[in-house]
Amino acid sequence: MYTVVKVGRxxxxxxxxxxxxxxxxxxxxxxxxxxLRVDQDGERIPLTISRVDRDLVRVIFMTVGxxxxxxxxxxxxxxxxxxxxxLGQPSEIPRGATCVVVGGGVGIASCPIIARAxxxxxxxxxxxxxxxxxxxxxxxDEMREVCDDLHITTDxxxxxxxxxxxxxxxxxxxxxxxxxxxxxxxxxxxxxxxxVTRSKGIRTYVSLNPIMVDGTGMCGSCRVVVNGETRFxxxxxxEFDAHVVDFDRLMQRQRFYLEEERVAxxxxxxxxxxxxxxxxxx
Amino acid sequence: MAERSPGERILDFQExxxxxxxxxxxxxxxxxxxxxxxxxxxxxxVGVDIPRFVSAIAEGRxxxxxxxxxxxxxxxxxxxxxxxxxxxxxxxxxxGRKERAINIGALERFAADLEVGEAKEPxxxxxxxxxxxxxxxxxxxxxxxxxxxxxxxxxxxxxxxxHEPGGVLVYGxxxxxxxxxVVHREIERVLSLGVELxxxxxxxxxxxxxxxxxxxxxxxxxxxxxxxxxGIPGEETNGVYSANEFLTRVNLMHADRFPETGTPIRRGSxxxxxxxxxxxxxxxxxxxxLGARVSLVxxxxxxxxxxxxDEVRHAREEGIEFITCAVPVRILGEPSVTxxxxxxxxxxxxxxxxRPTPRVLEGSYFVIDADTVIQAxxxxxxxxxxxxxxxxEVGRKGNLxxxxxxxxxxxxVYAGGDITTGSATVILAMGAGKRAAAAIDAxxxxxxxx
Lengths: 282, 450
Ligand SMILES: Cc1cc2nc3c(=O)[nH]c(=O)nc-3n(C[C@H](O)[C@H](O)[C@H](O)COP(=O)(O)OP(=O)(O)OC[C@H]3O[C@@H](n4cnc5c(N)ncnc54)[C@H](O)[C@@H]3O)c2cc1C
Ligand SMILES: Cc1cc2nc3c(=O)[nH]c(=O)nc-3n(C[C@H](O)[C@H](O)[C@H](O)COP(=O)(O)OP(=O)(O)OC[C@H]3O[C@@H](n4cnc5c(N)ncnc54)[C@H](O)[C@@H]3O)c2cc1C
Ligand code: SF4
Ligand code: SF4
Ligand code: FES
Known about the structure:
The complex is a heterodimer.
Chain A: E1 2-11, E2 14-20, H1 22-25, E3 33-37, E4 45-48, E5 51-53, E6 56-62, H2 66-71, E7 79-80, E8 82-87, E9 98-104, H3 111-120, E10 124-131, H4 140-146, E11 149-154, E12 161-162, H5 165-175, E13 180-184, H6 187-198, E14 203-207, E15 223-226, E16 229-232, H7 233-236, E17 239-241, H8 247-254, H9 258-273
Parallel strand pairs in A: 9-10, 9-13, 10-11, 11-12, 13-14
Antiparallel strand pairs in A: 1-2, 1-7, 2-6, 3-4, 3-8, 5-6, 14-17, 15-16
Chain B: E1 2-3, H1 6-9, E2 17-19, H2 22-30, H3 39-42, H4 50-58, H5 62-72, H6 76-82, H7 89-92, H8 95-98, H9 104-113, E3 132-136, H10 140-151, E4 155-159, H11 168-171, H12 180-191, E5 196-198, H13 209-213, E6 217-220, E7 224-227, E8 240-242, H14 243-252, E9 270-274, H15 278-289, E10 293-298, H16 309-317, E11 321-324, E12 326-332, E13 339-350, E14 356-369, E15 372-375, E16 379-381, H17 383-388, E17 413-415, H18 418-421, H19 426-446
Parallel strand pairs in B: 3-4, 3-6, 4-5, 6-17, 8-15, 9-10, 9-15, 10-11
Antiparallel strand pairs in B: 1-2, 7-16, 12-13, 13-14
Bound molecules: flavin-adenine dinucleotide (FAD) (2 copies), iron/sulfur cluster (SF4) (2 copies) and FE2/S2 (inorganic) cluster.
């Protein structure tokens, strides 16, 4: 059992949770993730390690289904069942290069830790973070603190530049020499955004989020198609060369359990709101 | 041994075999002729003193039977159920040549399952050696090595990356063959020897290799890893599972009780399983219990099926359709599976294992309707830790290479079980754990305490 020491709401449906997990914190590096289970019968869900502070690790998640809704109900001081990590390969951190870190929506969660690692290795770091609107934009301050330059976009123009992160990236690579790009966000955003750098041959990484079970290279659930080959995101990734990822496959496989996810969410809400013992409202 | 009827058992995950009664056990044990040079023992990878425990059962001294078994085997309730006895102890039993071999597995299970007083449990040695040994992986190899090392007075830390110990015993083999309570009880016995268990620890990541090598000795038992896929078109389609994933979702994550539990699974209505080993049988029978019609496609002949004999029979009784001498060539449907195209094979000249080589029969393509496909065609040794162990000699298949006692090419690092052999059996993994523990003990005691 692992103690949750802090919870917070960062935006609509976006929450942060800090948990004491020394075994994860001790060796965690940028780009890695953890898997947690809220309770005894819980699903194992992967979440990016978004910050490490001594023996504490932070995750940031969006409520999209039963498990993330359940996780958002955990209060400070409560325990969650399991935390395992760090999992996956750390980001490949170059030295003395110009790097752009692009985050979209909840994918921004992964950005500060990567930006920090890049900065510490002597790179020039430019951040681009985008969300649908100003209220949904997270971690602005953390990104501003670490990046040499930070660009903000919103789909509706309520903050920063009106448009998509891809638009900023497109201009940026025309204006100056960029060596490496990270793009992290929903699959469709990663697909579109990483197209921008293809023609210039800029090394671009994306962090893939297929459905996982064990996260240790045993089950094969997380297989993705990269460069025409089957790769396993939990042990070979989660970061891959964006220009050879089959995003359509990824998106198709992410939809595998749509029907079951709907059932689970209904079940979760029914259990919570029925004023049964232990049920919370809200 | 009594068995529940197929119609009843496919409705749940309760055990299929209900075991022997005391009278049945005694009657079976009395058939043993107590050979002077018992062949059966040579067939057991851990050398259980079979005649001695069998005669104890025949004489009604059940507790003696149990402690006799425990001397050689700390997981007997498990082995009695899952050992491929027909090719091990029972296969070697002299009586098998004329009539019927002694049902050693059922007798072992009978004796091991008995509830007996605490006093009869193996006790930890109080002497401590001052050495700390890390065991990585809590499957049968790791559990056995941990127990043997603790018995010899070493401090043992057992690391497991999943949230529960047991390895394949909990995530692979279904409860209807190996009830969870049985596994938990046997694991508790190992832990009660003073073994310190840390779950959720992926060694190589949660614990670095440098931290691992700071132990006085290390035993690596990380088992099998990534599942093999056939490499045929359509394998990325939704509805195609590896057996590992399908079984893990149900056995470890309890997806059969979804949405009470959080992990979903596709409860196919028409499932095709590829493969012919224990893993394939388990996947097929789990799918059957989730309500599907199941066909199993195997490339060789029926008599070549490598699964335990009882599992094949149980699968057939439960209505699994066997399609032999055939192989899938393409998975149909987009984005979800709608069928599997297969081709028939003819059996030609024997290969190096003495079995015939399958060859495609041109023009014999056919399609099986399916909404779920489960591939059970093998796994490769878990690559993660092996890849991080610089200087370790690794075999062609990614397995760790060791000597007979389990020593790898790195000093103080030992290995055993599926990580060295590729997918094998519970008892072979246990045997490897036992041998390595003896070697670790001997090697450690030769050097002074640091
Ligand atoms: C390496 C990795 C890192 C991730 N990091 C983050 C993060 O930092 N913040 C965040 O909000 N989300 C992250 N995700 C996605 C997160 O794991 C899913 O949102 C979560 O599992 C959904 O669970 P649920 O029960 O609430 O929703 P569900 O009802 O299960 O699913 C809702 C949606 O989430 C997707 N999903 C379902 N199960 C999984 C799963 N096991 N793995 C991945 N996606 C799944 C489905 O495709 C579906 O679209 C990450 C995923 C991966 C693989
Ligand atoms: C479905 C199925 C059915 C089977 N049926 C039978 C049967 O009927 N009879 C039989 O004899 N055999 C059977 N087998 C084979 C048998 O289960 C295996 O040969 C045996 O479990 C191997 O034991 P092991 O200890 O080497 O590895 P495993 O049982 O695979 O255990 C390895 C453990 O190590 C953990 N691990 C891996 N990497 C790390 C790491 N880096 N850090 C920490 N922990 C790690 C894993 O999570 C796992 O728990 C079956 C196998 C399967 C999959
Ligand atoms: S451990 Fe397995 S092989 Fe040995 S006697 Fe028992 S059932 Fe037979
Ligand atoms: S070989 Fe058979 S008959 Fe002989 S001792 Fe062993 S079990 Fe008994
Ligand atoms: S999640 Fe199981 S292999 Fe990657």
